Amino acid sequence: MKKTMWVFLFMTMCSAFLFSVSAQSETADRIELGRLGGTTRSASAMSSTLGVQPAEPVVEAFNSQSVISISVQNYRGGAWVEIIGPREVRQSYIEVYDMGFGVVNLSGLRAGQYTIRITLGTEVYTGTFKKESYGR
């Protein structure tokens, strides 16, 4: 009985490990984003008089075959997302309340190199990604 239980436990652990490895291999590619803009003076002046340091916004983007997933944290307001290619442009808007998440569908865009630009107030985050052609 104990030997059967150990074999069952071992098999369960192995299958869980193999499942986690296969799930990680299909994850989306992270798009490296760089920050271009500055911060507003009123926000920095207010934080220095109150003695509170505001948290920097955290912006992440992931490329997963036919969609771009955008995550914004530590920010309140609108986030404009632009996908800019050689012949095509896609735009999207995300309303963020401390944390927000949005998805931009890339179906219909041709395969090639694209630039993503995410604008949060006066700060602009940009990066590049490659859209592959899937199917025919």
Structural topology:
Layout: H1 2-25, E1 29-31, E2 34-35, H2 41-50, E3 58-64, E4 67-84, E5 89-105, E6 112-120, E7 123-131
Antiparallel strand pairs: 1-3, 2-7, 3-4, 4-5, 4-6, 6-7
What does this structure look like?
The chain is of the alpha+beta class and 136 residues long. Helix content is 25%, strand content 48%. The chain has helices at residues 2-25, 41-50; strands at residues 29-31, 34-35, 58-64, 67-84, 89-105, 112-120, 123-131. Strands 1, 2, 3, 4, 5, 6 and 7 form a 7-stranded antiparallel β-sheet that branches. It is flat and about 65 Å long. The N and C termini lie far apart (54 Å).
Summarize the model shown.
This protein has 136 residues and is of the alpha+beta class. 25% of the residues lie in helices and 48% in strands.
List keywords for this structure.
7 strands, 136 residues, alpha+beta, 48% strand
Quaternary form:
single chain
**Proportion of beta-strand residues:** over 45%
Shape: flat
Mean model confidence by pLDDT: 78
Instruction: Characterize the biggest β-sheet.
Output: 7 strands, antiparallel
Unreliable parts: 18-25, 40-46
